[in-house]
Amino acid sequence: MEQDQWIEMVLNSSNGIQKVTPDEQLFSKIMNTINEKPEVRIRTMWFAAASILLFFTLNILLINYSTSKQERQFSALTQELDKDNQLYQ
Amino acid sequence: MHKINTDFTSLYNQYSRLVYNVALNYLQNTEDAEEVTQDVFVKLYKALPQFKAESSLKTWIYRITINSCHDFIKQKNSKKYFFVFGTKSNNTVEIENSTNFEHPGILLENKEHSEILFSVINQLAENQKTAFILSKLDGLSNPEISEIMQVSISSVESLIFRAKSNLKEKLALKFKEYRKN
After folding, report:
1. Taking residues B92-111, what's their average pLDDT?
2. pTM for this structure?
3. Among the CATH numbers 3.50.50.60, 3.100.10.20, 1.10.1740.10, 3.40.1110.10, which is that of B1-92?
4. Is the interface score ipTM higher than 0.90?
5. Which of A11, A31, A87, B19 qualifies as a FRET site for B167, CA 20 to 30 Å off?
6. RNA polymerase sigma factor 70 region 4 type domain spans which residues (chain B) (predicted)?
7. Which of B114, B129, B135, B165 to mutate to test the interface with A (most CBs of A within 10 A)?
């Protein structure tokens, strides 16, 4: 009985709850956040552009390196074959 | 741009208390409630030009606020889980450090009991907590809650009923502790 009464009292303790007003500075904080946002976007955009540029540069360098390496290997092989195929040595 | 700012200022004046109070009831921390209010209005500022009057503006704002509160709690819990190697509560909506929350809008004579009420509200399942807060603390009707939560009115009734039953069970356990003290 006492328990039920206590539970009801706790459940009803929110009766007559008043609405609370947020801090007066909150609106200016929100406006600052809104105005700050584009700067972040531009910074992010530059970061993305730099990353893409770096990605392509590295790829081009890698392709150049691997093709020149292949060419060097191929010319070494042809030189070797030329030497081996001399019939009148 | 000027018109958007004017609209936005009036929107803030009209709905800031609503957003802040829902966030406060949900998060039970004034700083967190302010952070979520800020986040909600930034989202509203961006989304306002695309707002289609398919639902009322108030319902839409309620939905954004509740979703932001859920996101905030998840983010807070995941941060906690990331840094602390321990067991995590099964209930994702449980918030730590909120057991002694004193709601600034509660009547002085109810302060002690309301602290207990808020601590057990946090142990409810997410949708039961939402329905209970909107009904009991925000004073919304079941049709309004059904529109916000996008469920049927009978589902809202069931959620509130289950929330109250669960609260009574949890409070019965609290009563034993209360009696010991």
Report:
1. 70
2. 0.73
3. 1.10.1740.10
4. no
5. B19
6. 117-166
7. B114
